[in-house]
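Please check this.
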Amino acid sequence: MESLLAAQEQVIARWQMSSQDMVKGRRQVAGGRWQRIARCYVAQNGPLTDLQRHWVALLNAGPTAALAGRTAAAAAGLAGWGDGLVYVIVRRGASTPPALDGVKVRWTRADIDMHPVASPRRVRPAAALLQASSWMRSDRAAMGVLAAGVQQRIVRPEDLRAAVGRTVEMRRRQLVLQTLNDLAGGSHALSELDAVRLCRKAGLPTPSRQAVRCDARGRRRYLDLDWEEWRLSAEIDGQQHMEVRRWCDDLLRQNELVIARGDALRFPSLVVRTQSEVFTDQVARGLLARGWRP
């Protein structure tokens, strides 16, 4: 029992304990030194750390469970997508765990794509991102978490595509595959994915993403969207571009690109999200002015 407690952040499940261990656990709880939470004992009586919450959620769900979805993705390094819940996946046929506040249990009939060495047990990063995408409430959030996983270098688009091939139970499969195509094409942010989707919907040519171009001084620059045939490009600026120094640098960068190769449009990401008709209208007029014909 002592070695398990040391390895599991002072959390142990009843199913891991001998009858003698459970007698000791009950005595520790009665003495106010430990606490019992559902199927687990925690060998301290204060608030739980986040890692202890993960262990409790996992061990409470039984020996075949794994941390999943946004929880497993965060453990792999994904930042900015937590919602305060701990996600656990369990094979159907296992006993139903007692409900815990802040824990979401998902059931599966498929094999769990378990990480071979991670502790606490969790699914592999690509599987975690696909689960997170599948469990999102909106299509846009489903696309966004995949883009974030690639942008933050948690996985590569090809890792996600391979995981799709292994995944039997998945919502939004076609949307996920289209998103992976766009990510493989160079889109690095949700606003870029939105912009490419709007171009397709409006019947406009599909732009290249993160195209490499040299400015007037020979320096390599990366364009969010580029229509090379018509010498038109577009930059999608998120909130981080509004900081004064970043804004000045971006304007000077755009000037160098315009000097070197032609015109560049610029859109706040807010316009792409909320005024899509303005975005597609200006892109269409820019392309038409440079010889594109629908």
Observations:
- The CA atoms of residues 37 and 189 lie 40 Å apart.
- The radius of gyration is 25 Å.
